[in-house]
Design goal:
Strand content: under 5%
Length: about 70
């Protein structure tokens, strides 16, 4: 998956996370939706599989959850 595909799919990945997490994490989801996905990748970025891109977004989510002390 090229960087532009990641950028185009970023919101979908965040919405997928939102669909399966508890409501206490909604503020983090909102913050993630405010992130410009262009800032998360470079034109040279490449994900071998779509699941790698989804995992990358999950990693961002988990880091934010830990930073907020929710887990």
């Amino acid at each position: 998956m090229k960087a532009i595909e990641f950028v185009m799919n970023y919101e979908t990945y965040v919405k997928e996370i939102e669909a399966v997490v508890r409501s206490e994490f909604k503020p983090i989801i909102q913050k993630m939706l405010e992130i410009d996905p262009h800032d998360l990748s470079t034109p040279e970025s490449y994900f071998e599989h779509e699941s790698d891109a989804e995992g990358f977004v999950w990693t961002i989510f988990m880091k934010k959850v830990k930073k907020e002390g929710l887990i």
